[in-house]
Amino acid sequence: MALYTAASSSERIAFNTLNRKTGNRVKREFIDSETGDPVEREDQVKGYEVENGQYVVLETDEVAAAIPDSDKTLKIDAFIPCSQIDTTYFDKPYYLAPDKMGRDAFLLLRDGMKKQGVAAIARTVLFRRVRTVLIRAHGKGLIASTLNFDYEVRSSEEAFDDMPDMKIGGEMLELAEHIIGTKKGSFDASTFDDRYEAAVAELVKAKIEGRSLPKRQAPVASRPSDLLQALRESAGIGAKVTKPKRTAANANRGAGRQKAAKPAAKAKQAQAPPRRAG
Amino acid sequence: MALYTAASSSERIAFNTLNRKTGNRVKREFIDSETGDPVEREDQVKGYEVENGQYVVLETDEVAAAIPDSDKTLKIDAFIPCSQIDTTYFDKPYYLAPDKMGRDAFLLLRDGMKKQGVAAIARTVLFRRVRTVLIRAHGKGLIASTLNFDYEVRSSEEAFDDMPDMKIGGEMLELAEHIIGTKKGSFDASTFDDRYEAAVAELVKAKIEGRSLPKRQAPVASRPSDLLQALRESAGIGAKVTKPKRTAANANRGAGRQKAAKPAAKAKQAQAPPRRAG
DNA sequence: CCAATCGTCGAAAGACGATTGG
């Protein structure tokens, strides 16, 4: 079977960090916190803090030995009724498709599960961990969701600790149901848009075109991929663009590193945590 | 309303990187990729790569201006039938509990939704983005799942591109259903254990106790939190523990940084501090 | 090339964001 990532934030606008003074990209170097000397990769070891400032040292290969062997298979443990699934455990979704070999078995699994109204609990090694996955029929194929480990999911008891054990009934409940009835809608993913992403895209576009952005204009929400397309088109127009000076010797290195470019604008964390809503 | 993280990997064993030669912790410094000079935080700006090596510069405050204002509320857009929900969009789960003020409204919402078999689609600002969340009744309270943005979820079309449009029927399907029937189980989160985590915990424990670990022993799968407890108990026994040398001048800084240390041996948080969103 | 990892920051035991492994 082949796994395809079903959800990914890779379409987001990606930035690199630059040095304002030179326009060059920035890279990070690891230095000793006491001596300030650079620490090469082969001198970096893992430390488990036993007590304040006391560490047990673990060598890279010792940690690597703990990684489970991957036989690249997906082993089904059991089939469970779809009604029993606790979605709190859901981690990431992957589409599952058959490879050349297992097409018949794949279709049998899909249709058998669909007919019985069950999902499969399976295990597979994914990124160094043995992951439990939940497999369900999904359209023409299957969808596998990795499940959080038991220790990762908190009990709701604490959160609902001082919840009154009271049930609403009678007229009040009818009123609530009426209000709910007036706001019926449907699950429409096209409304799940990302205004921050749109605003950042608009900002970049304005910069490229040499415009200044009106303060706090409400950005038009649209698919970032459309905006990326627009950005690419705008790019030719040119504006305040910084071209880093580079030495001939470094030209290749720099080009290679562009691939590593990573997403996401981190600006100031304007979000102070405790927030009241609702 | 208050939001409580329902799933977190914070109970995992966390390491710090050490310099093998000195036993000191390592920290990272940002340096200019061409000149090699350190780049201070205030000189770090975002660059959007327009073309190979050409960047549009975005200042931190410009990017920050794109962050939506948070009025700290949770606005319900609509109620949708639970049957319509596409779990491919699920991102992270949060428990929702009422604050002092809104207890009645909370219970009305919970019981009204439960009775009608619907979930609420709402919006709130979470970590700089306006997020769409799906709210459902869950035990005594509510659970809110952030939903992936539309552009983050891939169409399954590509993955299921060359899936034969064939349906299994008759005897073969019956056989499949029979096999499924023989492997019926239940959704049991206690079996969702993390063998890698357990093996790493065992490795650390062995190190602390001065044992050497048998090669590739099959680690006993148990809750990492139990293992962490065991580690704490072992810690007194002492073994090969590295104590970083520190200068008097750095003692305070070092102590301060310990807080920053991801508490590997973190005792279970009595109660996760609620993020207020309500 | 993408996605998961990893270390750090800072307060939220969570998210960011550069890096690297598959």
From TrEMBL, chains A, B:
Biased composition, class Low complexity, residue ranges: 248-278
SMART domains: Ku78
GO biological process, one term: DNA recombination
Origin: domain of life: Bacteria
Keyword DNA-binding assigned: yes
Pfam families: Ku
Domain Ku: 36-165
MF terms (GO), sorted A to Z: double-stranded DNA binding
Start and end residues of each stretch annotated as Disordered: 236-278
Alphabetized UniProt keyword annotations: DNA damage, DNA recombination, DNA repair, DNA-binding, Plasmid
Function description: With LigD forms a non-homologous end joining (NHEJ) DNA repair enzyme, which repairs dsDNA breaks with reduced fidelity. Binds linear dsDNA with 5'- and 3'- overhangs but not closed circular dsDNA nor ssDNA. Recruits and stimulates the ligase activity of LigD.
UniProt record similarity statement: Belongs to the prokaryotic Ku family.
Subunit structure: Homodimer. Interacts with LigD.
Name this polypeptide is given: Non-homologous end joining protein Ku
